[in-house]
Specification:
Elements (H helix, E strand, L loop, with lengths): L2 H16 L15 H25 L4 E4 L3 E2 L10 H11 L8 E7 L2 E6 L1 H9 L4 E6 L4 H12 L7 H15 L3 H8 L3 H7 L7 H9 L6 H11 L3 H12 L5 H10 L12 E5 L2 E9 L2 E6 L2 H21 L1
Parallel strand pairs: 2-4, 3-5
Antiparallel strand pairs: 1-5, 3-4, 6-7, 7-8
Helix pairs in contact: 3-4, 5-6, 7-8, 9-11, 10-11, 11-12
InterPro entries: Chromosome_partition/occlusion, Cro/C1-type_HTH, ParB/RepB/Spo0J, ParB/Sulfiredoxin_sf, ParB_N
Protein name: ParB/RepB/Spo0J family partition protein
Pfam families: HTH_3 (PF01381), ParB_N (PF02195)
């Protein structure tokens, strides 16, 4: 047992020794009965045992905590990734947990997850009742940074959520972008690129928040230079990207040329049948109408009729 744990236990023992002695009264004199006393002693033992577990955990040794006692961190900016949870669930169904989750105390018998949100959710889906955990006495700023950096390098985390995490830490700590990059162990240019999101119009950020995977930091950086003077057009460009009517790779280039042009929807040909046989396909695209006949004979018969129709339409103009 570590020195710190022994010290805490010594303090608890001293408190018990200093407590006023309890005088036991005979039954019927208003005293509590022996079964009740035993229950109280048992409850006290359980509390002491829980305290010992917490102290052991803070010394670096994992303890077993009820799953229902764990709650998500309030500093979690990114949602849980479904594919990651399912991969963990499939693995943990047949294998032990390789590393305990990290939590901090959030109240009596309640713990806030600092690292391991996906592992906890995988355990819940497996109907596991308990999980190995290490309890740490993290302050808010430490917990905020650890929650963010626990997932920062995960490939499934969208750039927008990475920006939100950095912005949360900057707002709480006042750190510069250079200091944030150093703390995260990444380049200053990457952090600067992620902070391009904050230069986009509020209306564009609302669209991105609803579909965070649709817009990356490259596009945010490319469009941010136009946001101050042309916020409506920037928002429209992002809307087209989210709706998959405009490629990210082409959005900035098309933006420079003028109003972003949506990707043309391929025309669907109309099939004209004669009984079960296809007579022709009619395809309208832009200012053109293309008619494809299945045989030269059908084309020859229809050509004169088409010409007559067009002449009639021209006269009616």
């Amino acid at each position: 047992m570590s020195k710190g744990v022994k010290s805490h236990l010594s303090g608890i023992t001293a408190m018990l020794q200093d407590a006023a002695p309890v005088t036991l009264r005979p039954r019927g004199s208003g005293a509590i009965g022996a079964p009740v006393q035993l229950a109280q002693l048992s409850a006290g033992y359980q509390q002491l045992q829980t305290k010992v577990q917490e102290l052991e955990s803070r010394a670096g040794r994992p303890v077993v905590l009820p799953i229902d006692a764990l709650q998500p961190s309030r500093f979690q900016t990114a949602g849980l990734d479904e594919a990651r949870i399912e991969n963990l669930r499939a693995n943990l169904e047949h294998n032990a947990l390789a590393s305990p989750v990290v939590v901090r105390t959030a109240g009596e018998g309640v713990y806030e997850i600092v690292a391991g949100h996906h592992r906890v959710e995988a355990f819940r889906r497996l109907n596991r009742q308990e999980i190995d955990a290490v309890i740490k006495d993290y302050a808010d700023d430490e917990a905020m940074a650890l929650v963010f950096f626990d997932n920062f390098l995960a490939p499934e985390i969208p750039d927008f959520h990475k920006y939100l995490g950095f912005e949360q830490i900057r707002r709480a700590s006042g750190m510069s972008q250079e200091a944030l990059a150093k703390k995260a162990g990444v380049s200053r240019s990457l952090v600067t690129q992620l902070f391009s999101f904050e230069r986009l119009p509020a209306s564009a950020l609302e669209l991105i928040a609803a579909s965070p995977r649709a817009v990356g930091a490259n596009l945010a950086q490319g469009l941010a230079q136009y946001a101050a003077d042309q916020p409506e057009r920037v928002t429209e460009a992002i809307r087209l990207v989210i709706e998959k009517k405009l490629d990210q790779s082409k959005a900035v280039a098309m933006f420079r040329e003028g109003t972003p042009k949506p990707r043309a929807t391929p025309a669907t040909p109309v099939v004209i049948r004669s009984g079960r046989k296809t007579f022709c396909d009619v395809l309208a695209s832009g200012n053109r109408v293309v008619v494809r006949f299945k045989s030269a004979e059908d084309q020859a018969r229809a050509a004169q009729a088409i010409e007559d129709l067009l002449r009639t339409l021209a006269r009616d103009e």
